[in-house]
Amino acid sequence: MSRPALLVAGTHSGCGKTTVTLGVMAALAKRGLAVQPFKCGPDFIDPSLHRMVAGQVSRNLDVRMCGVDWVRRTFARHGREAEIAVVEGVMGLFDGGEGSAATLAKSLDLPVLLVVDVRSAAESVAAVVHGFATLDAGVRLVGVICNGIGSDKHRAMVEEAVGRHCTVPVLGCLPRNEAVTIPSRHLGLHMGEEHPLAGAGLERLIALIETHVDLERLLHIASAPRGGEAVPEPPAPIEASCGAPVRIGLARDAAFCFYYEDNLDLLRTAGAELIPFSPLDDDQLPPGLDGLYLGGGYPELHARRLSGNRAMREQVRAFAESGRPVYGECGGFMYLCRSIADLDGEVFTMAGLYPFAARMQTRLRSLGYRRPRIVRDCLLGPAGTVLHGHEFHYSTIETGAEPVPAAYALEAGRPEGFQTQAATLAGYVHLHWGRTPEVAARLVAACRSWGGNLGKV
After folding, report:
1. Which end of the chain is more exposed for a tag (fewer CB within 10 A), N or C?
2. Apex CA 132: angle with CA 232 and CA 4, to 5°?
3. 315-340 pLDDT per residue, tens
4. If you average pLDDT over residues 62-72, what whole number do you get?
């Protein structure tokens, strides 16, 4: 029997999809339901907000990056104990091709709730809904939330037009002037750990949904039987290394907060014990570590504090220079460089494991899915291995005259993933290991045998 499930999609980015998703999750959780959140696509920020309101770790479901079999297994495994699964889409419903919310909905046979921004339209909303409902017969559009209603008359006009021209029901109309907002910045909304809807903000959001959305009908729709419940057989399990768990230090604080939880699970399965530490607040690394993992985040927002914590910077550098493995992604990569320069041109000293200078830019410098091909044996795999991930950053790297070999080549031939002689590997791409779980086993094995030859890992 299938569990109740629903995908919340939008007509376009900025239509209110995240606000509606968070409100629905929070309102259902307040009713006492166990809500399992998911996010379509590679985003890190929305899952942290899901966790804030639902109290459960949100998982990324990305067909393009992870493959449909991984997505189906992940959805089945983490939705098994929930009373309802709520999936937030990405961009507009059909945007993104293989990575779109429409592709995900068809892969999992999920009913779709469409959020439509109606602030500058009335009867024409019916044409938009009709188009979304009929563009792809494989997508089951089951309800509409109209966001940005200006008055009772406006609501009546929209509902009458949609009811007359469409078979999809309107399940809610959210008023335009409700003050429920989530702060944003250059990489997107604020993280859930920063509690952007704390206290009264979350209660206002729940009240908004309870007042203006037909939750009973939404639950009924989500509970309808679904097809596609057969879950593919899992791949061969990762073999954990023999012996005591490998202790890997995990940088986790306001500056380093972008991690795919699936990657962390794969590391644990492969025999790792993840030990959190804060490059912002701690003055020394946890004892007995065999490796370090520094994920992405916002080092540029905290560059002064990171630079000021000289004791931690020196410990990280000494750790890496001892030959123990260090792996960094995006923000973690920037921290491992010589320096970070902010938009005002002020330069902050970082760990200095790379002779590179990171410099923030006013415009987005790189965005999109990536398939790095390993061109020289490294911490994550042998030459020839194809990895999968996503890149999104506003900074650039000034490499200078001192060369550092690249472990990967991107599709256009651009070098990525720089590995030093001391077994430090870092680059801009956020990798997801769903298609390549052996990467986690290799990294754990490298940490276990950090004094030996990586070619034997």
Report:
1. N
2. 40
3. 999 999 999 999 999 999 999 999 99
4. 97
395 and 338 both lie in a single domain? yes
Give the H or E element holding residue 426. Answer: strand 424-427
Largest CA distance in the chain: 74
Q: Are 182 and 263 found together in one domain? A: no
DSSP for residue 116: E
Q: What is the pLDDT of residues 82-106, one digit of tens each?
A: 999 999 999 999 999 999 999 999 9
DSSP at 14: T
- 6-10, 307-311, 353-357, 446-450: which has the minimum mean pLDDT? 446-450
User: In this structure, are 218 and 258 located in the same domain?
Assistant: no
Per DSSP, 225 falls in state: -
Q: Is 361 a domain residue?
A: yes
Catalytically annotated residue among 40, 330, 337, 447? 330
Instruction: Indicate the pairing of strand 395-398 with strand 272-277.
Output: unpaired
* Residue 63 contacts residue 57 (beta carbons within 8 Å): no
CATH number at residue 281: 3.40.50.880
Q: Token match 């996503």: residue? A: 390
Token pair recorded at residue 306: 């990171």
Q: How many domains does the chain have?
A: 2
330 is catalytic: yes
**Is 228 domain-assigned?**
no
| Nearest Cα residue to 358 out of 317, 299, 420 | 299
Q: Give SS3 for 415.
A: strand
State the Cα angle at 422 between 360 and 403, rounded to 5°.
50
- Three-state SS letters, 358-408: EEECCCCCEEEEECCEECCCECCECCCCECCEEEEECEEEECCCCCCCEEE
Helix H or strand E segment including 54: helix 45-54
Could you list the residue range(s) of the whole structural domain that residue 107 is in? 5-222
Structure tokens, 107: 């892969």
Q: Domain check: are 370 and 431 in the same one?
A: yes
Neighbours of 179 (CB within 10 A): 7
Domain boundary among 165, 189, 222: 222
Single-letter amino acid, residue 66 = C
Q: 294, 332 in Cβ contact below 8 A?
A: yes
CB 425 within 8 A of CB 419: yes
Q: Are residues 257 and 214 in the same domain?
A: no
Angle, in degrees to the nearest 10, between helices 125-134 and 152-165: 40
Strand, helix or coil for residue 59:
strand
Q: Are residues 40 and 185 in the same domain?
A: yes
SS3 percent helix, strand, coil of the chain, rounded to 5, is 35, 25, 40
Picking from 139, 112, 135, the residue whose alpha carbon sits closest to that of residue 6 is 112
